[in-house]
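Reopening closed ticket. The problem is back. First fold of the pair:
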Amino acid sequence: MAAKATRTPLASLPGPGNVPKSPCNGEKLSSTKSKRPHTDIENHEEIDDDDPRLEEITDSCDVVRRKINTFINSGEMKVTEFQRAIGVSSNSYLTFMKQHGPTKGIESKTYDAAFAFFKKRELQGIKMQRKKVKKADEDEKMDVSGIHLDGEESKEVPIYDTCNEIRKKIAAYLRGPGITQAGFLRELGKMYPEPKKISAAQLKTFQGKKGPLEGNSSNVFYAAYVFFEKIRVKQGKKKSKVREETEARWSGRGGITTEKQGGMWICHKTEAAVQDKYGDVEIVRKH
């Protein structure tokens, strides 16, 4: 197996978004085809897997992650199909996709292989497909106007999902059929007493955070919680175990706050402040 080239930190490279050259780990991209129809590359220019243009990485890790999400959300391939297509394991893929930052994941095989995959398509003139959704059908599917939650008139619906849970729900929902990001954002804006415009940039910022309370002051957090709670009620689904556990933790405090968090925890040098998955902080003794 060819030795992996030493990477120069992204921040030290000249020009915005430049990333070091990579030999793509010496791996050949898999020729596995999706069982579902997607763009036919046979009518496009043939690009060898060892073409030097595939080795000059010019996208940051975050850009590659966005391209992957857009590609998967288009429905052209499922996640497992994409993993096979670029020749990486699910562990490598999931580890890379969970990271945040322009250089986070720079040593990942998924980073190299995914860049090469999209660069090859670009050289072949294959455009990224977009979901083809009829607005009327989408609006009907997402319509929750007939569902009322206590406190929604004054933006005081108690929240019993952490920011991390809402981020997972958003990601899963946008992967669903007949749903576009634009339509989803339009619907989120309707979750406020006075409708608001929620932008793609706000959604991106919220989704890029990590932690049970990170992003709790975002308009996306409150609106998405209300939206998904209405969807749950509309579909007649029971509360999940995680939802019930979170509600048990926060019901006595009126739900998870949407006020921006700040300050610090003071503890002895033998202790540490630890935040659990529900957002509660406990002072524990260091081992």
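Second fold of the pair, where the issue appears:
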Amino acid sequence: MSNSPIPAPPNPNINPPRSTKPLGLRKNGKQWHTPRTPFNRTLSTSNTTTSNHTTSTTNKPPPSQSYTKRLALRTSTTATKAHERELKAEKEAERTRRIESIKEKRKRKEERERFEAMEIKMSRKRVERRRRREKRNKALKS
């Protein structure tokens, strides 16, 4: 027996055998480059960049995750998003209510100042009559 080691069988994933068929001249004129092969996703485990494209696994669930787990995750995220939308709507309603009350206060203050300016020019009774008449007209318009 000889002491030479037995050669291991070639790993097909490391260097796939090339076809012996000649490919001819390349279109771009770079015959010294090796011909490209399709990208194999199963060999890629992390973020890899080739000249053609980039694969990123940051937002994807791991491939071992089962469908039920993904479904449960999806339903929980949709419930969370719905709750966030609800909270956002409540916050917006509170904001609009506050804005409306501020506008109403400013409107009342402006009207009061206008009537005070009118009282300076004319008698109090006449101003009260005008105020009542404006209230009636406002009630008819709305």
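Update: turned out to be a display glitch only; the data is intact. The beta strands are 48-49, 54-55. Residues 108 and 114 are 10 Å apart (CA to CA). Please close again.
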